[in-house]
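Final report, Chapter 2: Outcomes

The project's central promise was a pipeline that accepts a single protein chain and returns its three-dimensional structure in a standardized token representation, suitable for archiving and comparison. That pipeline is now operational. To close this chapter, we reproduce one record exactly as it appears in the project archive, with the input sequence first and the structure output second.
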Amino acid sequence: MGFWQNGALQRIIKRLLNLSEGHMSLTKVAIISNAITLVGHKPIITLDVDDADDLIISASQAFDFLLEASMTENTWRFATRITQLTKINQETPLTNLWQSVYILTPGYLKTVRLHPHNYQYEIFENSRLYTNWTGVMHMEDVFLPDISRLPAWFTKYFIFEIAAYLALSNAQKAEYYNVLESKRSHQMGLAMAVDAQNRPQNSQASFPLLNASQRVTGDFVGG
């Protein structure tokens, strides 16, 4: 009887879905350990190369580029910041198209927007921003957060991201892929919904009962 048929995978998934922020130590090892158990590997407590098999090595390598890819592809609010860029007065732009050069904040992955809004600029080598703006400039950008600060709801999704990648890339684990991909997609949707609450949109709906309640409360307090 296979790993999926005997119920082991269902139990592991249920345990992961019940993770809470206070019950999980967010480390690279812990996240990879949970991911590889979803494809039938035993849990691990170290990524020591001497003790690692091919699946662990593959998971460790996948962790790094999948995490960065997820940050840049989805613009998570928890990985978005606003910083003031440092203008490099002693550096002259290489062409006469630009007047100023600013250095990007360490850890920069991609630009969300500039403040003040400016669409006339170019970024080279992810380290220098060339523009005609000469004053104070702030950038809203995506960065790679410390692993220990990843939200628990994102971590649940990311565990399935790694597991699905491992199942797809490993011929011996191909039978797991459809199940894990379905769970990955579901968890990603939940994570994006939670993350979106960090930037609420203007409501287009009317709530007459709520508005009436607020008017009654206001009249009562004021009267």
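Archive annotation: The chain is about 40% helix and 15% strand.
This record, like all others produced under the grant, will remain available to the consortium after the project formally closes.
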